[in-house]
Write a structure and sequence with these properties.
Layout lengths: L2 H17 L9 E4 L8 E4 L4 H4 L3 H15 L3 E7 L2 E6 L1 H13 L12 E5 L11 H19 L3 E8 L4 H13 L5 H4 L3 H27 L3 H7 L1 H14 L3 H25 L5 E4 H18 L2 E3 L5 E4 L7 E5 L7 H16 L3 E7 L3 H13 L8 E6 L2 E2 L15 H19 L7 H21 L7 E2 L2 H4 L7 H20 L14 H11 L1 H11 L3 H20 L8 H24 L9
Parallel strand pairs: 5-6, 5-11, 6-7, 11-12, 13-14
Antiparallel strand pairs: 1-2, 2-4, 3-4, 8-9, 9-10
Helix pairs in contact: 1-3, 4-19, 6-8, 6-10, 8-9, 8-11, 12-13, 15-16, 18-21, 18-22, 19-21, 20-21, 21-22
Length: 594
């Protein structure tokens, strides 16, 4: 129980004793005491004035005096206007300290019985993963771990967009310009090779559009519709949905190249999934729902054969669900996939981790599912996050100007190595250990820099800033942990055992650290409710910062009083354990030594 919950419970006891049973149900408003006032917890007295029939200050004095006289863990109190500031005794904090130290699952909530699916990654099979995908994957995986820490049963899902006009464009370009190349013959990672095909299609398309514009003297938009290569891609999509053997064979081959490439990138990032769906398997489910909507009169068919849902009465527009040639759109397969998931897992919540450019899409998805009679549509939540931008601006896949995920990972690891060598943090390490450290630091820097930003915000990615060993960075927290482990190793070598003596004095600075440690479970709950692992990242930074200030201000191994020394060793060991738990939610490994 954290200090706020403890005081809240005792205030209810005070209200009943002072003002009768009718006061028990009055709200208890608790907050951390502001730094300019003395106290650990502040109680707002204004809700009790009608019951106490006294002024705010007098009511606060009355409640504070009862608490001091009846709760041994309360040391002192003071009242500032209508705010009662309560200071807890060292004995209370010693008990809190012992409880945290003894709880190996500190920060892990009890099982809730709630099942939540988190869909993230959801790549297209026409290009390799890039920096934008990195944020999506890291955010999605962190949210999944965060919800698991809140006691929920979490299913990590990936919906691979393995069909559609985008992959047909890559396939057409491969046939026209790549002379039968494979990952083996080209020396290119499979997803990179297919990505090259996608970029090449765009080049060929632009060339055709330019020629048509010059020849026929028409606009770029009109010329684009006439481009033969685009028509070929559209025709290929129709063939694919009709099951044309040659088209399907090439599709399977090129997608296989991409999957092999994706798996290597996922492995580098530490990303895994419990369930992988493929659009090629779910779009037909969506088509069946389109027919259901037509039968219900929820959808309508235009003269050209396309199927739509009219949402204008809901303040939205008309939404295409099936093209005139019978092929499906993204919305079609999302409808089918949603129904399949809720049938398979009886989900309590379905979270889609998708960029904010798709806000409207998910607004429409929920509304259409509701119109189809699915009450569970209310359990759908779109975790909308901002884009990742670079100093030079936005990335564009078609033009091949994206930051490739594999290149980024390699660069982060190389930069971690350069920085570590410059700072002289490799003493006594062999080559293999150094390389593993560079990997841990590079990936830790990348993950932390991306996750520490509120998901809703657009972020500017700066690799050099992220690898800094000072400030709010992954390497700063990693180095803090390594420093603590170094102290604990020296303590073990000296025969010192971390422990909490009954009569050892706890310093005010140590109480401040205990307050922060004790707030960790509440922070996990807060972050889970907000679907924001950024709150956990910044908590870890604050805890690391508090340790470093503490280490600067007090002696640990040189402390002459063995009981004080052992208490401090126990305190820093708890700090290390909580840092591991917090950073583990972010998918970040903390090194044992640096």
């Amino acid at each position: 129980m954290n200090q706020e919950s403890f005081i809240s419970e005792k205030v209810k006891n005070a209200l009943e004793a002072l003002y009768g049973a009718s006061a028990v149900n009055l709200p208890v408003q608790i907050q951390a005491t502001r730094k300019e006032f003395e106290g650990d917890v502040t109680v707002v007295t204004f809700p009790y004035l009608k019951t106490s029939h006294k002024a705010p200050e007098a009511t606060g004095q009355e409640i504070g005096e009862w608490l001091k006289n009846n709760v041994e863990e309360i040391e002192t109190y003071n009242v500032v206007k209508g705010f009662l500031n309560v200071k807890l005794s060292p004995s209370y904090w010693r008990e809190v300290f012992g409880g945290i130290a003894a709880d190996s699952d500190f920060g892990q909530a009890a099982p809730t019985g709630k099942t939540i699916m988190v869909e993230f990654s959801s790549p297209n099979t026409n290009k390799p993963l890039h920096l934008g995908h990195v944020r999506n994957n890291l955010l999605g995986a962190s949210v999944a771990r965060l919800l698991a820490a809140n006691g929920h049963n979490v299913i990590k899902a990936n919906l691979v967009n393995d069909r559609g006009i985008h992959i047909c464009k890559s396939m057409i370009a491969w046939k026209k310009a790549f002379n039968g190349q494979t990952p083996e013959t080209s020396g290119r990672k499979g997803d990179h090779l297919v990505g090259d095909c996608y970029v090449k299609f765009n080049d060929l398309y632009k060339a055709e559009v330019k020629e048509i514009m010059e020849t026929e003297g028409i606009s770029e938009e009109e010329a684009g519709k006439k481009a033969p290569i685009l028509k070929e891609a559209q025709q290929m999509l129709v063939k694919w949905e009709q099951g044309d053997p040659e088209t399907i064979a090439l599709w399977k081959t090129m997608n296989g190249w991409v999957y092999d490439g994706f798996d290597k990138t996922y492995d580098s990032l530490g990303i895994t999934f419990d369930r992988i769906y493929h659009e090629s398997e779910t779009y037909l489910l969506g088509k069946s729902l389109v027919q259901k909507g037509l039968d219900m009169g929820v959808f309508y068919r235009q003269e050209n054969g396309s199927v739509w849902c009219d949402l204008t009465s809901d303040g939205l527009d008309q939404k295409l669900l099936l093209r005139s040639d019978g092929t499906s759109v993204y919305m079609t397969q999302d409808l089918g996939t949603a129904e399949k998931r809720f049938e398979e897992y009886s989900l309590d919540e379905m979270i889609y981790v998708v960029g904010n450019e798709q806000n409207y899409h998910f607004q429409v998805l929920k509304l259409i599912l509701k119109k189809l009679g699915f009450e569970w549509s209310d359990a759908i939540y779109h975790l909308s996050y901002g884009m990742v931008e670079l100093p030079e601006g936005k990335m564009k896949s078609r033009e091949g100007t994206v930051v490739d995920a594999d290149d980024l990972i390699e660069k982060m690891i190389d930069t971690a190595g350069e920085t570590s060598r410059e700072l002289g943090k490799l003493d006594g390490m062999g080559q293999e250990e150094q390389e593993e450290l560079f990997r841990i630091l590079g990936l830790g820097a990348l993950k932390y820099f991306i996750i520490k930003v509120d998901p809703k915000k657009t972020m500017l990615f700066d690799p050099k800033e992220s690898i800094d060993f000072n400030g709010n960075t992954g390497p700063f927290v990693q180095y803090t942990h390594a420093r603590i482990k170094s102290i604990l190793r020296k303590a073990a070598e000296a025969g010192c055992t971390p422990s909490l003596g009954h009569d050892v004095q706890i310093l005010p600075k140590e109480i401040e650290i205990l307050k922060l440690l004790n707030s960790f479970p509440a922070k996990i709950i807060e972050a889970g409710n907000a679907h924001s692992p950024a709150l956990v990242a910044n908590y870890a930074y604050e805890l690391a910062k508090e340790f470093n200030q503490y280490y600067h201000d007090v002696t640990i191994m040189k402390e002459e009083d063995s009981s004080v020394r052992n208490m401090r060793l126990l305190l820093i060991s708890v700090i290390a354990r909580v840092l591991v738990k917090a950073m583990g939610i972010l998918g970040i490994t903390l090194p044992e030594r640096m």
